[in-house]
Design a protein that fits this description.
This protein is α/β, with parallel strands linked by helices and about 550 residues long. The chain has 19 helices and 25 strands. The strands form 6 sheets. Strands 1, 2, 3, 4, 5, 6, 14, 15, 16, 17, 18 and 19 form a 12-stranded mixed sheet that branches. A 4-stranded mixed sheet has the order 20-22-23-21. A 3-stranded antiparallel sheet has the order 7-12-13, with no helix packed on it. It is globular, with a radius of gyration of 23 Å.
């Protein structure tokens, strides 16, 4: 019987993290170990890397995700191992998993098969405490806001216009909308409030975009958490909260170093969701990796419409980095799902459904190649039920777009199984690459959202009610118009309707809510029914996760 992902990970022969760091020229005095197999790399050491040239940056993205699975993280890990296998010096950069999805729908999120990062259980469960620190910093500000109001409200904060929400790293639908401060005057003034998941917190976005401890503190101070009765914004620095918030994050901002099953280095740091936030690992980890290796493989959350767009328009724009090549992950099964096939029938050959579903992948390819101007390859995770006729159809259709299709078998064979993909990526990185943004800084906020919707999502237009339009206008006139836009919407479709598979066109994208993230320096536009606090499914993954009498974790993916 085939081993599960966690069983494969638990049988791995890991090297001590000081040995992994030594491959990168990082001496042990620059490490803060968390046990034997994971460590943080000091910011002081990272500061010494500034004069070094950057390596090549490879973005792994994907088609629109489906219940059939695509394997983007697995491909990221497999490609990193494959580049090392063919003799290149490569590092992978990933986001940290959120406990909400770990115990909810996805299970673990450290790759799969023989393309994983380890120690897998640690990475998926608490890791180095980054998310806990982010939650504490977020909730410290929330506590200080209510405390300030309770003690006389010197700043004149309007309790009706507080926009800062509390967070926790778990899917809990009951906390989406609550009333707080009940129980009498000693507990403050009752008001409506709510929780988001940690990965949707602006503190998470700031954490991942900050370039130094000083930058982190400045961004935290810039957080606008509410307004006075006169409509004047009130910031975290007005409460003198940003210093203590920075203290909670001062150790966590250093990137985490772990290893793959093949003992190659991997940075895993930060974890904003791509369907809610900007979906990329930390700038600190990525820029450090670029100084330490010839190739850096990173991923952006979900498909190229959400993840890759934000990777470019937010992360790359802010950090001054550019990808040299992109890998778009797909499976025949997922394409047939987009062609209308029920999940139970995905193992049956169906060329007509595949042909229909290919429209989804083709739009992602066009976005990457034409809208973003990045050389790309399609990497196919092949399943045993995939027929040669289906593979030929896929290869032929993508060939007409001038894009190569490579079958990668890293799930079963590790880096060796993705060697052809690695060689193709090396070739692409030698091509001239000058990535382009979807919109300009000088565009209005409304125009930025409109360009994303029409150029990337294939929509006809965007809409918003009068209240939302007025809020966008207010932000524009208040000096935030140069900020990029962070779209929160379903990952399952180019539209805002998750049931619309394939590549819908001519639809309308409705902007339901707008949030200012002044510290992260972007504007969140929430579209459709997107929730910033997910709920658990009917049968959550938590039901299968357990620990035996010897302390061994089971059921984690």
């Amino acid at each position: 019987m085939a081993l599960s992902d966690i069983e494969i990970a638990q049988k791995a022969t890991m090297k001590r993290i000081v040995e992994v760091a030594a491959k990168l020229g990082i001496a042990d005095e620059h490490l803060e170990p968390y046990g034997h197999y994971k460590a943080k790399v000091s910011l002081d050491f990272i500061g010494t890397l500034k004069g070094r040239p950057d390596g090549k940056l490879v973005l792994v993205t994907a088609m629109s995700p489906t219940p059939a699975g695509e394997g983007k993280t697995t491909t990221t890990v497999g490609l990193g191992d494959a580049l090392n296998y063919i003799g290149k010096k490569a590092i992978i950069c990933l986001r940290e998993p959120s406990l909400g999805p770990v115990f909810g729908v996805k299970g673990g999120a450290a790759g799969g098969g023989y393309a994983q990062v380890v120690p897998m259980e640690d990475i998926n469960l608490h890791f180095t405490g980054d998310f806990n620190a982010i939650a504490l910093a977020n909730n410290l500000l929330a506590a200080m806001i209510d405390n300030h109001i309770s003690h006389g409200n010197e700043l004149g904060i309007d309790p009706r216009r507080i926009t800062w929400r509390r967070v926790m790293d778990m899917n809990d639908r009951a906390l989406r909308d609550i009333v707080c401060s009940l129980g009498g005057t000693a507990n403050g003034y009752p008001r409506e409030d709510g929780f988001d998941i940690v990965v949707a917190s602006e503190v998470m976005a700031i954490f991942c975009l900050a370039t130094s401890l000083k930058d982190l503190k400045e961004r935290l101070g810039n957080i606008v958490f509410g307004y006075t009765r006169e409509g004047k914004p009130v910031r975290a620095r007005d409460l003198k909260a940003h210093g203590a918030m920075t203290v909670l994050l001062k150790d966590q901002i250093a990137p985490n170093l772990v290893q793959t099953l093949e003992n190659n280095p991997a940075f895993i740091h930060g974890g904003p969701f791509a369907n809610i936030a900007h979906g990329c690992n930390s700038v600190t980890a990525t820029t450090a990796a670029l100084k330490l290796a010839d190739y850096v493989v990173t991923e952006a959350g979900f498909g190229a419409d959400l993840g890759a767009e934000k990777f470019l328009d937010i992360k790359c724009r802010k950090a001054g980095i550019k990808p040299n090549a992109a890998v778009i992950v797909a499976t025949v099964r997922a394409l047939k799902h987009h062609g209308g096939v029920d999940r139970a029938l995905l193992n049956v050959e169906n060329l007509s459904a595949l042909e229909k579903g290919l429209a989804n992948l083709e739009r992602h390819v066009r976005n990457v190649k034409e809208t973003y101007s990045i050389p790309c390859v399609v990497s196919v995770n092949r399943f045993t039920a995939d027929t040669q006729a289906e593979m030929d159809l896929l290869t032929d259709r993508l060939g007409k777009l001038g894009v190569k299709v490579v079958v990668a078998n890293h799930w079963a064979e590790g880096g060796k199984g993705a060697a052809d993909l690695a060689r193709t990526v090396v070739e692409l990185c030698e091509e001239k690459s000058n990535p382009t943004f979807v919109y300009e800084d000088s565009d209005t906020l409304w125009d930025k959202m409109s360009k994303i919707a029409t150029k990337v999502y294939g929509a006809a237009e965007i809409t918003a009610d009068t209240k939302v339009r007025n809020r966008i206008k207010e932000l524009q006139e208040s000096g935030y118009g140069h900020y990029p836009v962070c779209v929160a919407k379903t990952q399952s479709s180019f539209s805002t309707d998750p049931s619309l598979r394939g590549a819908p066109s001519g639809h309308v994208v409705n902007v339901r809510e707008v949030r200012l993230a002044a510290g992260a320096e972007f504007i969140v536009m929430i579209c459709g029914d997107m929730m910033t606090m997910p709920g658990l499914p009917k049968v959550p993954s938590a039901e299968k996760i357990d620990v035996d009498e010897n302390g061994k974790v089971v059921g984690l993916f």
